[in-house]
Design goal:
The protein is mostly helical. Helix content is 60%, strand content 0%.
Amino acid sequence: MPLDTARRELGPERLTAHEVRQRLEHERDTRLTQLTAIEEAGPGTNDHLMAVQKDALRRVLKEIDAAFRRIEDGTYGLCQDCAQPIPVERLEILPYARCCVGCQRRST
């Protein structure tokens, strides 16, 4: 599993729980800021687009919350479909990823 709570190995293939939490908190803060900005913009000419954006942001926030739960239950970093480790490079880019790239492609 790519999550190493003690960081015994210093190789780039491992992320500490602290690093993961920091990345997830940053993602959450960014999405909350975006959501607040959209809500403060108020009604406008493109209400449908704003609604779609808010829905997308709320979905990502749910994914981030789910990633925090996976950290707590010890399944963070494992693909929910094939149970193989998700590459650390994917988790660095998308820290709330639930699946490896291969399984994600098969599901879409």
